[in-house]
Predict the 3D structure of the following.
Amino acid sequence: MEEKREERKELEEMEKTSLPLKKLSFKNEVYKKVFLLGLALLFVAYLFLNSKSIFKGFGVLLGILAPFILGGVIAFIMKIPLNFLERKVFDKIKNEKFQKHKRTISIAISFIFIILVFFLITAIIVPQLINSFDGLRKSLPSFLQMAIDKTREIPYLNNYSDKLQSEYDNLSWNEIFNRIKGFVTSSDKSSQILNGALSTASSILGGLVSFMLALITSIYILADKERLGYQARRICYSFFDNNLANKIIHVFHLLHENFFGFIRGQLTVSTIIGIATFVASFVLRIPNAATLGVIVGVTDLIPIIGPFLGGAMCFIMIVIEDSTKALMFLVLIVILQQLESNLIYPKIVGDEVGLPSLWTLVAITLGGSLFGVVGMWAFIPLASTLYELMREYTKYKIDEKNLDLRMKKI
C-alpha cells in the first residue's frame, strides 16, 4: 500500500512539473509567432552562410519547375478568353451534351484564336520590318550626308560639320561588309560560329520541349481549374486554423483579382490603341497603316516606355519613305498617348486594379529596375494588393479607435 502511495505521489509531482510545459503549446498565438520568427531567422542565417550552394540549388529547382510555372502563366492569360466564351457565349446554349463539353470547346477555341492572332501579327510585322531595314540600308548613306549638310546651317553645329564630313568620307561601307565577310569565312571563327550554332540549336530544341510541356500544363490547369482551387483551399484549412486560413485565402483572392484585372485591362487598352493607330494612319494616308497599328499595340503592352519605343520604331519606318508623314505620325502618337494616359488607361486599368497613379508609377519603376518588363507587369498587381490590404487594416484600426479622420486640402 505504501509503495502504491509513493508511486501516486511521484506521478502527481511529474504532472505538476509538466503543467508549465502546456503553456508553451502552439495553440498560443504568441509562442507560435515567436517560434515561426525564430525559424525564419535561422533560415535567413543559413542562406547567408551557404548562399552559393543554396542559390545554385534554387537555380536548378527553378529550371526544373520553369515549364510548370510558364504553364501556370499561360493558363492565367488564357482564362480571359475562356471565361468569356463559357459565361457570355456558351452558357446561353441550352443543350445538355454541349454543356458537358463546353470547357473542352472553349479551351480549343481560345488557343486557336491566340495562335491565329500571333501568326497574323508576325505575318504583318516581319515582312514590313525586313523591307524597312532594307530601305534603311540603302538610304542610310544619303540620309547621313543630308544630316551633315543640315548641320552647316545651324550656328552652334557648323564648327563640327567639317569634322563630321571627314569622318563620313573615311567611312567605307565596302570595308565594313568585307570585315563581316572575313569574320564569317575565317576558319577559327567558323568553328566558333559552328559551335555557337550547335549550342543555339540545342537551346532552341530544349526551349521548344519546355514550351510544349508548359502548353500541356496550361491545358490541364484550365480543364480542371475549379478542382485545383478546391484542393488548395482544403490544404490551407488543413494546415492552419480557420481564422488564419481565411486571411490567407483572402490575400490570394485579392492577388488573383488584381493580376487578372490588370492583364485583362492592359490587353484591352493595347488593343484599343492599336486599332486607333491603324484607323488614324489609314485616314491620314500614312504608309503601312496596318503594320504601324500592330507595332504600337504590341509595344503598348510595356508600361510607360512601351509607347515611346513603338513610336520611335514606327517613325524610323515612315521617315525613310516620307518625312512629312513621319512628322504627322509623331503628332498622332502624342495625341493618342495623351488620350490613353488621361482617359482610357485610368478608366479601364485603373478600375481593374484600383491603384492611384503615384503608386502605379512607383510600382513600375521598382519592378522595372529589378526584373525588367516582367517586373513592371508583376509589381502593379502586387502593389495594388498591398495597397488594398493596408487600406483594410487602417480602416479596421481607425474604426476600432472610433476616430473621425477626413481628408483636408493643404
Observations:
- The mean pLDDT is 75.
- The two ends are 86 Å apart (CA to CA).
- The CA atoms of residues 105 and 398 lie 50 Å apart.
